[in-house]
Predict the 3D structure of the following.
Amino acid sequence: MRKSVLYIVVPCYDEEDCLDETNRSLTGKVFELAKKKISARSRIVYVDDGSKDSTWEKIVGFAKNKKVVGVKLAHNVGHQNALLAGMDYARKKADIIMTIDADLQDDIDAIDKMVEEYQGGAEVVYGVRTDRKADTRLKRDTALGFYSFMKFLGVELVYNAADFRLMSRRAVDELMKYKEVNVFLRGIIPQIGLRSAIVEYKRKKRKAGKSKYPFRKMVHFAWDGVTSFSVKPIRMIFVLGLMIFLLSVGVTTYAVIQKLTGNTVSGWAFTVCSVWMLGGLQMVAIGLVGEYIGKIYIETKCRPKWVVEEIKEK
Ligand code: UDP
Ligand code: MG
């Protein structure tokens, strides 16, 4: 039987501090796996996502080894798009496409089990974190809140699975048919719906360098996840509007009765309060609807999500 070719895609943004160790571990892993489980033509693909430090120079150095490929993106397009760029490159050459972050917080020893699941027939294998002690408290709590909120909105996510996963070429081909620009891979991949499996592992601390996901980017990422997958926020506004309307009917009846019985007071405070309250609510509603219109606007452009500048391979 022909052995499957595995490509491991690693997105890198300003990762000069940890790439040496990452490359040592990953090439070691591929070498070890190629002894029995996978083809010797398996490789590691580093995607440089427009780094400003010496990341690309390092990758060029690694690519002298036949097991390593470097793909340089013309500018920073963000983690999700960098992953897609790497997967799109890899699907032309590999049977199995894995993605893993450059900081090796995910356990590379789980790759063995993931490949076994693939060989057992799974098209997508999610790496699921059982232990997040290595993450900061803030990161854990916000992540937990996010997963619960997405569940409430009815979005299918694999709990505690991030972007450490294995996909068959077929699954990646299907993924590439999703033409949206606001990509949220964790939401799209379960939607593809091919046979999947889960491999658990413990998440470790970042090897070196700083997180490239500051709080601002995390909020942005979560917001993209919500608005790219759910129209429930719009419905919530609708329900709120309906409730306020019913309430205002009651208030109006009350006001009319007061008027008829001659009990009218100046009513200034009440009027001003309602004007401000309703004005505020309307603005929130318009803003929210605007968010979706903004998304439609961007989607209709169908811009390419990345541009490959250069490919280094032997
Ligand atoms: N990354 C990227 N482009 C970006 C930001 C991050 O390719 O604009 C990469 C980064 O180099 C790393 C991965 O995405 O390999 C995940 O980032 P990080 O480890 O900083 O995120 P965290 O683990 O803190 O969520
Ligand atoms: Mg990380």
